[in-house]
Amino acid sequence: EVVSTQSTGGPLVPGTQIRLTSQSAGKNLRISKNGAVDGRGGTGEWATFTVHNRGPHIALSLRSHGNMFLAIHSGSLTKGDGGQFCSMIVKRHPDGAISLESAVQPGHHVGVLPNGDPKPPPNTGTGEHGRFFVHFVK
CA geometry: angle at 90 spanning 74 and 21, to 5°? Predict the structure, then answer.
C-alpha cells in the first residue's frame, strides 16, 4: 500500500520502504532477477526498496531480496552486495525529487533514460535523467 504518492521531503530513515519513480521514464527503478537495473519497474517486489543507514549516506536493498542492493560500480548502474559501492548521497530538489550520487565515486549518479534504460552514472547528473520521486510504501 502506498503511503504517499509524491516525495514529501521526509527523511529516508533506516527500515523505510520506498519506490523510486524516474522523472524521465515515469516508471519505477528496479533490480531484475539477473541483477540488471533499469527504470521499467512496476510496484512489485523488484521495485520496492528498503533504506539502510551508511553513516551520513544511505543504501537501498530490495525489500524481498535483502542481499540485492542498488550500486554504482565501474561506471555502471548495477546490483551490489551492500558494500561501499552501494553507499549513496541523497540530494534533494525543490520539486520534491531526489538524486542519488555515489558516495565513493563523486559525480556518478543513478540515472534512467526516457525509454527506461539505465544511463551510465558518469554521464548522469542531477537533471531529469537523474531525478526520482520517492513513494513511501507501507
Answer: 85
**Chain segment 60-86, per-residue pLDDT in tens:** 999 999 899 999 999 999 999 999 999
At position 86, the amino acid (one-letter code) is C
pLDDT band of residue 134 (cuts 50, 70, 90) is very high
C-alpha cell at 72: 554504482
**Residue 60 neighbours by CB under 8 Å, 6+ apart:** 18, 20, 49, 50, 51, 52, 69, 70, 86, 88
Q: What global pTM score does this model have?
A: 0.92
Pairing state between β 17-22 and 49-54 = antiparallel
Residue type, 79: K
Amino acid at 72: I
Tell me which residue has cell 512489485: 44
All residues at 6 or more sequence positions from 98 whose CB lies less than 8 Å from its CB, including other chains: 7, 20, 90, 91, 92, 131, 132, 133, 134
